[in-house]
Amino acid sequence: GWVDMENSVGVIGIGAMGTPMVENFLEAGKAVFVFDVSKEAVAKAVAKGAVAADSPKDMVSKTKTIVSIVPNDAVLKKIAIENDDAILKAEDCSGLVHISCSTVSPATSRQVAPVHTQKGAEFVGAPIFARADGVKRKEASFVVGGAPDAVKRAKEILDLTSNRVFVFGEDAGAGNVVKLCGNFMIASAIER
């Protein structure tokens, strides 16, 4: 049951950033479900104690909190909405919070968010600022935007794998705007 749902999290995309996040969630005592197109990445996560989900859609029957960290906008749309086995193709998405930690455009977050709401789910844009080697040490920041109750749940989960979670109001794209500015500032600083 419900108790397990409360203490669980799903992670879609277990690459350089997702892998240490999975480890931090496991160390915090969460039941962690994983999905990735890379069978090797899944096998490694399972060896550490995670449980493989068959698809993003399948994950919804196991947990009500899903963190995704995927390469780009197109992949986010595929796993969330477009694919036959996408998150929102699950029978019952009510109460689901999808926390997107990918670096995507604000427009993508704002486009994806209402589709979640129609299904009784919430989408939280929460791009990660970190180097991959810093994530394990929780040297990561997340900039979060979305509905207040969903943001509260996102913060509880992200606190387990970061040292700072900044909340930027109810715009699901707000974090992505800050991320783009942040990347620009980092690039500018390097150029000098």
TrEMBL record:
Pfam families: NAD_binding_2. It catalyses: 3-hydroxy-2-methylpropanoate + NAD(+) = 2-methyl-3-oxopropanoate + NADH + H(+). GO terms for biological process: branched-chain amino acid catabolic process. InterPro entries: 6PGDH_NADP-bd, NAD(P)-bd_dom_sf. Residues 9-169 form the 6-phosphogluconate dehydrogenase NADP-binding domain. GO terms for molecular function: 3-hydroxyisobutyrate dehydrogenase activity; NADP binding. Keywords: Branched-chain amino acid catabolism, NAD, Oxidoreductase. The keyword Glycoprotein does not apply. Pathway: Amino-acid degradation; L-valine degradation. It comes from the Eukaryota. It is an enzyme of class 1 (oxidoreductase). Its EC number is 1.1.1.31. Belongs to the HIBADH-related family. 3-hydroxyisobutyrate dehydrogenase subfamily. This is 3-hydroxyisobutyrate dehydrogenase. It comes from Palpitomonas bilix.
